[in-house]
Amino acid sequence: MQCIPLGFVIVGSFYIDSANWYPFMPFGFQGVMGGAALVFFAVFGYDTLTTAAEEAKNPQRDLPRAVVISLMIALCLYIGMSLIITGIAPFHTLNNAAPVAQAFSHVGMKWITLIISAAAIAGILSVLFSFMLAGSRIWFAMSRDGLLPKWFSKLHDTYKTPHRPTLIIGLITALVSGFTPINDVAELVNIGTLAAFIVICSSIIVLRRTRPDFERKFRTPFVPVIPLVGIGFSIYLIISLPEITWIRFGVWMILGFVIYLLYGKRKSKLAKS
Q1: SS3 category, 230
Q2: What is the pLDDT along the chain (273 residues), one digit of tens a residue?
Q3: Buried b / exposed e across 226-243, counting CB within 10 Å, b at 16+?
Q4: What is the number of domains present in the chain?
Q5: pTM exceeding 0.85
Q6: What does 19-45 look like in DSSP terms, one character per residue?
Q7: Which of 128, 162, 178 represents a domain boundary (last residue)?
Q8: Which among 115, 119, 94, 249 has a CA at the least distance from the CA of 186?
Q9: Nearest Cα to 15, choosing from 115, 119, 104, 98?
């Protein structure tokens, strides 16, 4: 799958006109961060790897490597594609539903648009599947810990996977993707993930001070500098999102608190212990 965007980078590099890169950031740093706040959902599939830790043979060794390597590959490919499409076509011609196809059409390579379209569909599907995998595993873990009804933690007799939350999440994903504009979905997913990143970065700082005795197979370096940088950038990206996204996020947070206070708080194994 990664060979497709890499091929676009290699082919497109022969058609770059450096004049298209001036001005390099026509909308300034604020414009870059505004765009990052919207397309952020297309990058962070790497973090879903951690939700499958129980299904890995050696998660302490393999998961940190998988997260770092996949993040670096995605980072290089996205930077390369951004440089290529803005180098072969003026930026003001790319404000459309298919900017990559538009860029290659600008240099007379219309035949490649079919491959681009197929790659775009495959890329979106891979993101959806990765989040469905993560969502079902999180749902299963919460059910096993008592935060949700035990019915959701029942494993499939043959495949030994949490099939019930997988089927429910698949149905919800199909309905949302079929009837909701992708921009609205992306913004809502982004604010939820960025909020989770803030909690995770904060937890690293807190646990490093309060529980230094924990066995850590992987230690985040330069604590608290790196977590604070992560918190700062996450907050900045959240601020860049539109107001309606904040309202939708608030509604989901309230719903989550209601479920936790009425059910999870009383039923959780931690509360009983």
Answers
A1: helix
A2: 455 566 777 777 888 888 888 888 888 888 887 777 777 766 666 677 777 777 778 887 888 888 888 888 888 888 888 888 888 888 888 887 778 888 888 788 877 777 877 877 777 787 778 888 888 989 999 999 999 999 999 999 998 889 999 999 999 988 988 898 888 888 888 898 889 889 999 999 999 999 888 887 778 889 999 999 999 989 988 888 889 999 999 999 999 999 999 999 888 888 776
A3: ebeebbebbeebbebbee
A4: 2
A5: no
A6: GGGSSSSTTHHHHHHHHHHHHGGGTGG
A7: 178
A8: 249
A9: 104
Query: What DSSP letter does each residue of 132-197 carry, written as one string?
Result: HHHHHHHHHHHHHTTSS-GGGGPPPTTT-S-HHHHHHHHHHHHHHHHHS-HHHHHHHHHHHHHHHH
| Cα separation, 103 vs 170, whole angstroms | 34
- Give the Å distances, CA to CA, from 202 to 196, 224, 226, 231: 10, 9, 11, 8
With vertex at residue 218, the alpha carbon angle to CA 52 and CA 47, rounded to the nearest 5 degrees, is 35
* Domain extent at residue 210: 180-273
Q: Domain check: are 198 and 101 in the same one?
A: no
Residue whose entry in the numeric block shows the structure tokens 């035949």? 111
